[in-house]
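This section describes the prediction task in plain terms. A model, or a person checking by hand, is given the sequence of a single protein chain and must write out its three-dimensional structure as a string of tokens. No templates, partner chains or ligands are provided. The sample shown here is typical of the held-out split.
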Amino acid sequence: MIDDQSMESSQPELDATSEVASESGTPAAEAAEATATEAPEDAAAAAGDEDEKAFDPAVDMPMFRSGMHWCVLRVASNKEKSVKDTLQKKVQIEGLDQSVGRIMVPTEKTRTLKGGKTRITEVMLYPGYIFVEMTLEKDNRIPQDVFFLIKETTGVGDFVGSPGRPTPLSPDEVEKMLFDSRMPEEDPTVKLEFAKGDNVTIKEGPFENYDGTVDDVMPEKGLVRVLVTIFGRQAPVELEYWQIAKADE
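The expected answer:
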């Protein structure tokens, strides 16, 4: 038990400490204030760095998980994402997380330039299909509760394989599918389907219907330099990619 005498003897020390802390003009106090001010900013910056690297189930999880197989499910065209979202919600509601894992819809984000305007589109790499990570019975049959949950979802067809018995993807097929399922870049480059030496025909512009040869490709600008023969001499012409087509098309 602390007696009154010991409490009195400690009181001056506490007062002295209090006085030092109240002298905000001292170097020590200023340093303390600076530290207190900077700490939340550092924490916020660290949190921002964490947010920048979003969790990606195609990259941050193992290719195969114990007891799970990857199967291919046919779905209505242009309904891939809506079917995926619906299935994920139903799996959570029914508590079937242990039977149905990831559901993937591989897409590719592309940036197009036309008339100086940028447009970003997301294209399905496997239209009409989604990929489901799920458990199967010993004879490769779908567990009954999972089977009815999936079959009663609007827009769903059959699994690839025999009726009621999906054919699991091979390791090579899974590796490619997950590679294609990675989160697309926020600012993709323009995808050009031309290479140096390609024979092309100009579809629009002052040189419409002229034939030429690709001399250079500039995806960052969305431009293609084409060598066109004008008055018997070759001249380089810079065109937007949509203004040309491969000569054999």
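For orientation: The two ends are 96 Å apart (CA to CA).
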